[in-house]
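pasting input
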Amino acid sequence: MQNTNENFSFKKYAWTQFKKNKIALVSLYLLFALVILAVFAPYIANDRPLYCEYEGNTLYPAFADETRTDSIYNTEGEFIQVLQYDIADWRQLDLTKVVWTAIPYSASSMDRYNRDYASPSGKQRFKNSDGEIIDIPSKFRHKLGTDGIGRDLASGLIHGTRISLMVGLVSMGIASIIGIILGALAGFFGDTKLKMPRIKYWLTLFGVFMGLFYGFGQRKYELADAFSDGFGAGMWEMLISILLIIVITFFFRLLSRLLMFGKLSMEVSVPIDTFVSRGIELLNSIPRILLIITITAVVERSIWIVMIIIGITGWTRIARFTRAEFLRIRSLEFVQAAESLGYSSIRTIFKHALPNSLAPVFVSIAFGIASAILIESSLSFLGIGVPDDVVTWGSLLNLGRQNLEAWWLIIYPGMAIFITITIYNMIAEASRDALDPRLKS
Amino acid sequence: MLKYTLKRVLTFIPMLIAISLIAFIISINAPGDPVERLSKAAGNEGSAEQQSGASKKIKQELRKKLGLDLPIFYISVTDLASSDTLYKIQDKYHKANLEELTHKSGNWAAVSDYYKQLLLLQKQAQKVDAKAIVTKDNTLSLNSVNEAVNQFGFEVGSLLEITEEEIVANKFKKMNALVSSNNFLAHLSTPLSLVEASREKMFSNATRWKNYIPAINWYGGKNQYHYWLVGDGKYRKGLIRGDFGISYIDGQPIADKIWQKVWISFGLSLISIFLAYLISIPIGIYSAYKKDSAVDKGMSLILFILYSMPSFFVGTLLLLQFANPDNLSWFPVSGIQDPTLFDSEWSWWVKLKHRMPFLILPIITYTYGSFAFLSRIMRVGMIDIVSQDYIRTARAKGLGEGKVILKHALRNSLLPVITVFSAIFPMAIGGSIIIEMIFSIPGMGLEVYNSILNYDYPMIITVFTLSGFLTMVGYLVADLLYAVVDPRISYK
């Protein structure tokens, strides 16, 4: 394609190419829809109404904090009851005005009148505000049915969107950070280009060892305590540990300047490419799903830990692509120009080389998201890794497998997984064609 | 070529050691105590006293036999405060508690003193004979005495496992109250105060600076990993002589267990890969031949969509449709044979005929997974070949289109497909966990899944190492096959 426009940019070109693929464009819109669904999940599917009038009080329960507790007085100022937002049964309160969410059920709340796999088309029961059991009003119908303990499937699917998108983002975020850094270093330096005085090399290795010792070895109880308090606190402590490791490593690197004499100051090359390539080979020779299942069986059950595990086992593909791209780029003029201008290697790698090598990496990240979602749903399907009270698409499908009569627990979650994976694969494939015409099939 | 092969095989060794180490590191962190589980599996019923006496000895022997009383690896990295003999303590929870206490106090001598005092107290508390007390002093009821004694025993037992300051203080308070309010426990007050004193000493004599100095302990060849690898010369022969150890679930040799199951998974993956090739190669050729036609475009889209369909969804859908009394009950739901009908004396043909209906759905699911992928690869490879010069030459010299495609193009387009074939070996050993679980096929996948859930780590390590080995062999075989199929590639 001839382009004589002076403002020609690669991004614009890639975007025009991408737009030509109509299916991929539709996939992109669908992805936006999924993101919106995930972000607004609590306002789409929730037990608590968006707005209601109760005994003359105007409440916005869906927007309030889940653990909120209100003392309700009527218009004459008489005390009626203490309203605990998370356990109150809003459907049975005598609400004068009410706006429900589109699906008036939360993902994990159990409707005890529709237990034992209420079918979407079958009879469903409902307890009205007078305490009578009646046929369900169409507003409160479980439109996609329920599972064995009365959880609404539609709500579970919408909240599952959140988890599956988060799995893709977090795990591939981790994988790309590891993969891009390692791949870039390996590809840029190779086995011979990273040279440093012998003493610096040994002291850096020693520094990393000491850093791990102080950062993880000596802080393991702090870390364990923080992670049992919550994921945020745990990550904070983890960040401190990682910073500590970096500081200690740099301390030992600085220390090496004092010992720069004789044979110790002789330049040696660091075989960083060998390290990284062997690491990739090693990780690739263990079946990934086996590795992930084994680790998840040993550690605590948490969706965050599952994401982290998927991330740290999934970086090899990204690293391979980055490495290959850097091997190609490092001999190009602009990198040599940057080097001859005396820029530091770090600056050359991350500021000049990396932005020009991201296209194939981006594609492998997009494919990686699809496979991360697939792995998470496989794990939930097997019933490991994710705690039982977290509703995910895979765990819903697993419930369906155990009770084949509940076809809605198989079809709907399965389709949700399938469509999401297809969307990501479509986008990945189209962006591969758009970003790198050489690879086009 | 031979030199190249040998060179590649040599690189297997460090890789396998690394893989087995990874598996080893993961599994030693697994919760639970294998000895407890094994001795439970052996069926050690009996009263509490019997258990504490006889079964303790059995457990100790078992521990020794399994090598669990040894350090884990050749070296360990700890700090100066920690003891290098901590591995000798058998109870996993005691060990963790002691480790944390040492971390807090930095004084191993004081910590081990505290531990000894606690064990002493526990021993004395266990000696208290409720019946004797009641016969001596008949104002007491057996129940209340038993309750007090049990309560005391419980508190001591939990002290051995708990580190948190506040809870421990609370426990001491409770024990002191028990001792002072019950006369028959009075003789425990001295050891109890000794325990308290030693605990205080642990913190007053703390040497926390020791925590910050790393120490490397060398244990030599007497460690679990070494014995697992080369054997201990007595009970085990070690991995390098083909002994994978025994399962912690039922005590069976792991090699036997794998040998029984591996055929099912291997057979399934062999059949399904064969079928996948049978379907996908013609599809790939046809799409490439009619490139950019409506058929090709439609086929590509369908294949792409199929490719994104998770196999566990496909498997469940098949069950829902074809093995479900509500829809079509054509196939049995689970297993690979009907235990009421199956006879192991049958000839293999009858066996196969009997098993066929059980195997059809799993084979479809298995095949499905690789078929979409293979067809796509095949199509891309074929398109690449068809645009090569020698194909144009073949056409130019007047060869028929069928001959050009089938004779000249096909052979070369098979190259990328070979890669997939190499995946079949590790699949046999690891099995497809998900598919075997959906259809309850008693193959390696289900076996591995169960051993992971039961922390049967000799099994897990073996499977890791074997499948790592087979993956590498698969890669090597694929690379060698490349050279055989394509004379342009050579490893000289």
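fyi The first strand of chain B starts at residue 75 and ends at 79.
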